[in-house]
Write a structure and sequence with these properties.
Elements (H helix, E strand, L loop, with lengths): L1 E6 L6 H12 L2 E4 H10 L3 H11 L6 H14 L5 E5 L5 H12 L7 E6 L2 H15 L7 H24 L3 E5 L4 H12 L3
Parallel strand pairs: 1-3, 1-4, 2-3, 4-5
Length: about 190
């Protein structure tokens, strides 16, 4: 079973590459944003708990997020593995994810981090903003803040996965198929 944490700053191409990797390796893609939206929309107990925090502008506690992810992993434990997108974001979440996967006799195979220069990220996001209609993709200052937040909050995870010998940086610059090729080469070694 291959379990991948897919990471990279906003605009690095995580969503695009996750979709390709999912198809190529028959993995189950878990986006925490999608998991939250599903639970809230369906008024699950966990969704109602999460919504209570979100409505107050507070972060959802790790345990609620882990419980949601646990439900998804349990319901899909027959798959070849998982791509975790947007989780973990902190070292405590990484420990919690490790514990969750241990319950299913598996572990993280690797953290793949798409590495892209900031100016390219900004350019990609501004271009995407023309079509997406997302305010956070249309304003350079907001984009720069999002990129800064990514580096400030996730740098510790790079160290965490390096200590576990499963951090893999991938050049995220180039055509989509070039980046995919780099990831596929790497996946064959993980």
């Amino acid at each position: 079973m291959k379990n991948i944490v897919l990471f990279g700053p906003p605009g690095a191409g995580k969503g695009t590459q996750a979709e390709i990797i999912k198809q190529e390796y028959d993995l189950f893609h878990i986006s925490t944003g999608d998991v939250f939206r599903y639970n809230i929309k369906n008024n699950t107990n966990l969704g109602l708990l999460a919504k209570g925090f979100m409505d107050k502008g507070e972060l959802v506690p790790d345990q609620i997020t882990i419980d949601m992810l646990s439900d998804v992993v349990e319901k899909n434990s027959h798959v070849n593995g998982f791509i975790f997108d947007g989780f973990p974001r902190t070292e405590s979440q990484a420990h919690a994810l490790d514990s969750l996967l241990e319950n299913f006799n598996t572990s993280i195979s690797g953290m793949i981090a798409l590495e892209v220069d900031d100016e390219i990220l900004i350019s990609r996001l501004l271009e995407r903003g023309k079509d997406s209609g997302r305010a956070d993709d249309s304003n350079r200052e907001i984009i720069e803040n999002r990129i800064s937040e990514y580096y400030n909050k996730t740098a510790i995870l790079k160290t965490y996965y390096q200590r576990k010998n499963c951090y893999y940086g991938v050049n995220g610059i180039g055509e989509i198929d070039e980046i995919t090729s780099r990831i596929i080469d790497l996946m064959s070694k993980i």
